[in-house]
Amino acid sequence: MVDDEYWMRQALSLAEEAKENNEVPVGAIIVLNNEIIGKGSNSPITSCDPTAHAEIQAIRAACKKIQNYRLPEAVLYVTLEPCSMCAGAIVHARLKRVVYGALEPKSGAIESQSNFFESSFLNHKVTTKSGVLADLSATKMSSFFQNRRRQKKEIRTRQQEEKK
Ligand SMILES: [Zn+2]
C-alpha cells in the first residue's frame, strides 16, 4: 500500500544523503499522481546557497520536470517541519498538501514558531499533516548534532594539545 509513510521513507533516504555530505539531515520529495516528480536533500553548505533547503530543491526539480511554476495537485513530503522561507515557497508553488515528520522547535514555521499557513493575507490554503515517521527523523537529527558536537570537541582538544 502506498501511503504517507511510504513516501516519507523516500524523503528520509534523501535526509541520509544530506548527512553523508555533513549537512543537517533533511530530505524532501514531491509526489504527483503517485509518482515522485522532485527530490531534494538539504545542501546549503556544499552548494554555498542559503536557500538550498531540501524543500526548495524538491520544488525546483518538480517545477522543472513538469514545466510549470506551480504545483497545485502535488504533495510535498519533508522529514522536518519547514522554516519560514520554505513555507513561503510552498505557498508560491501552490502546493496542495504538506506532510512532515519531526517538529523543528527553533525555526519551524508551521506550528512551532508560527502558523504561517494560517496567515490572513494568504489566498492559498495548504493542508498539513505532521508527525509522520517523526521518531526516525528526530533520531537522525539528534545523532547528527551529537556527532558534530563530538567532532568539534575533538578538534578543540587537539588544538589545545598542539599548544602545549
Ligand atoms: Zn527551509
Structural notes for this entry:
- The protein contains four helices and five strands.
- The chain is α/β, with parallel strands linked by helices and 164 residues long.
- Helix 1 runs parallel beside helix 4.
- The radius of gyration is 17 Å and the shape is elongated.
- The mean pLDDT is 96.
- The protein binds zinc ion.
- The site of zinc ion has 6 residues, from helix 3.
Please summarize what this structure is.
The chain is α/β, with parallel strands linked by helices.
- Ions, cofactors and other bound molecules: zinc ion
Query: What's the overall average pLDDT, rounded?
Result: 96
Principal-axis shape: elongated
What structural class do you assign from the helix and strand content? alpha/beta
Number of strands: 5
Report the span from N to C terminus: 61 Å
Our count of helices gives 4
